[in-house]
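Students often ask why we bother encoding 3D structure as a string. The short answer is that it lets us treat folding as translation between two languages. Here is a chain of 85 residues written in the first language.
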Amino acid sequence: MTIIERNNRKIRSGVVISNRAEKTVTVLVERQFAHPLYTKQIKRAKKYQVHDENNECQVGDSVRIMETRPLSKTKRWRVLERKER
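And here it is in the second language, the structure alphabet:
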């Protein structure tokens, strides 16, 4: 797959947690950061609806996703690459 250089688009890594919808997967992205006052490490997670054109991704796959134009009411991301199963 050829990766075309785009403007500064956000790229995230996560794990596929659902692939029930047609051409759509749900990806869980976890981030870790330090609390601004107490400096303790905090984990936060967010789910993204991601466009998967060829229905390749399975539950448990690690994927990289890239921000894109709105594709539907909830989809603003697409699968960039599948890293591993």
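Translate back mentally: The chain has a mean pLDDT of 94. Keep this in mind for the problem set.
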